[in-house]
Amino acid sequence: MLKIENLRKVFFSKSSNEKVALDNISFCLRKGEFVTVIGGNGSGKSTLFNCISGFETPDEGRIVLDSADITYHKEFKRAKYLGRVFQDPLKGTAYELTIEENLALAYSRGQVRGLTKAITNRDVLYFRERLSLLNLDLENRLRQKVGLLSGGQRQAITLLMATLVKPKLLLLDEHTAALDPSTARKVMEMTAEIVNKEQISTIMITHNLKDALEFGTRTIMLSSGNIILDVNGQERQNTTAEQLLLSFGYNPN
């Protein structure tokens, strides 16, 4: 379980440019829960992810994961048990390495192992098995460099790398935003299949309001560093993208 307790983050404190990015927000994420997060620019979404991942340190509050207080754990330590997929497909992969080598690096997370240790036949079989789930024929292209793949293929590989060793928490940071609509849809369907099958605790930031309501089981909306909406169950099923737009303050009439 993830617990966010009274998290506060202020940039340029006590200056004319002071910006309250997170304003004492609190919420819990149950083990295996898939939550979508929406909000306008500057609402605090990215800062929330940066605090959870260790890229930023909150000014106040606590981050507790599986009963362990990780608020001040270094980012590289959290990378052993957190998975994060960014908007840019190039961020999560080593461009000059092959698919096989990238997967081997991801598979070694949390282990005393690297590319200096030979990739075993058993590893290769496992990589092929996981790649086959993507339905992109990448299981037959293990020796191809990732830099030669399309954006959608790279993002699918990045998603697979983030979940190859099941993380305690998966952070999806607008991971389909840079893709064309057709490819974005395919990657979202892959995401849902992997997350649901592996029962991975997941938080996904998205600007696509339909995706926010279709995928996962709960939707949170941020505004000015505050949670202004938190819906699940029947209430979420009855919520429309148009209603979310009204919550953003957009009225087409």
Describe this structure in words.
- The radius of gyration is 19 Å and the shape is globular.
- About 2% of the residues have low confidence.
- The longest helix has 18 residues.
- The chain is built from nine helices and ten strands.
- The strands form two sheets. Strands 6-7-8-3-9-10 form a six-stranded mixed beta sheet, sandwiched between helices. The protein has a four-stranded antiparallel beta sheet with strand order 2-1-4-5, covered by helices on one side.
- A hairpin with a 2-residue loop joins strand 9 and strand 10.
- It starts with a strand and ends in a 6-residue tail after the last helix.
- The protein is 33% helix and 24% strand.
- The chain has 253 residues and is α/β, with parallel strands linked by helices.
